[in-house]
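FYI - complex with S-adenosylmethionine, inputs then prediction.
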Amino acid sequence: MKETSKHKEAKRIRELVFNYWVSRVVLTANNLRVFDVLEKPLTAKTVAKRLALDPRATELLLNSLVSLKLLKKKGNRFINTSTASKYLVQQSPFYLGDIIRHNEVLWTNWSYLNEVIKTGKPASRAFELESFILGMHNLARLKKDVLIKQLDLKGVQRILDLGGGPGTYSMEFAKRGKDVYLFDRPETLEIARNLIDKEGLEDSITLLEGDFLTDPIGSGYDMVLMSQILHAYGKRDIKSLLKKTWRALNPSGTLAIHEFYLDSSLTEPLTGAIFSINMLINTPQGRTYSVQELKGFLRQSGFKVIGVQRLDDTVLIQSQKRR
Ligand SMILES: C[S@@+](CC[C@H](N)C(=O)[O-])C[C@H]1O[C@@H](n2cnc3c(N)ncnc32)[C@H](O)[C@@H]1O
């Protein structure tokens, strides 16, 4: 069938708007653990029975997941595609289900966007720590090898993972024989502790509890990693945290900032621009910063930028103390 191209842009706008239906289908399938049971081919009726769901509703849900290429359908049986097996089944090392659960929590807050734009105030009504922190682990597991490869760890022994969350990067440093300090809030460190214990790395990582804006963060570090923490704060807090970090580093120490980013127009790439809205909704002062802005904060805090690397949708900015 030939498609009329007269209203292509209208179609694009409609797609932009209905994206949330698609999103909702994936969130629900993840919640109901549909992918975990579909490693083997099953009919909708059997899936419904196993998961205690309505059979008609389940069939419609599974059909839509086929359309999204997360399931395949043969006759009346459904099975995961290789993508779903790799990323949506809980046992997989590449599982994304926790970050998807975190997105569901954020959904509640995003529903208040009208109000947020009118008042300029965040709408952080819903928050759930476990899916947030395990969700960070889902993402960092996919990124850790690329990120660590970019760091020059020669001569680096004492590392601070500031706002290290689940400790994904801390564990990688520990596996390389470094003395690692993971600083975060006490309730987050409870979750990190479980993950670290599972890896048998409890003796190689020191957990430091506190608020990095107001509490001491230690000193004598050869390297400080700040991964995905600055976007939650405004310029004043960022500059004061960078100055504090400057004091915590050894004279030839390195600060590595890993962040979402924007270009100098603050409009591209899309991930950075939309993530800014997420911070607008969920924090009083946070947003995505441009690479130029981050470099500026570093310079104003006494650092010399020594390297900027793009890691897909994020950026790694490495700097040292200016002499
Ligand atoms: C988005 S997560 C990033 C986690 C980890 N660095 C990563 O990249 O996977 C931000 C982390 O910073 C921590 N954090 C944010 N503000 C903090 C503060 N003022 N003091 C201590 N930790 C803080 C949060 O608890 C959370 O674990």
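The pocket of S-adenosylmethionine is lined by residues 133, 136, 140, 163-165, 168, 184-185, 188, 211-213, 227-229, 232 (CB under 6 Å). DSSP finds 13 helices and ten strands in the chain.
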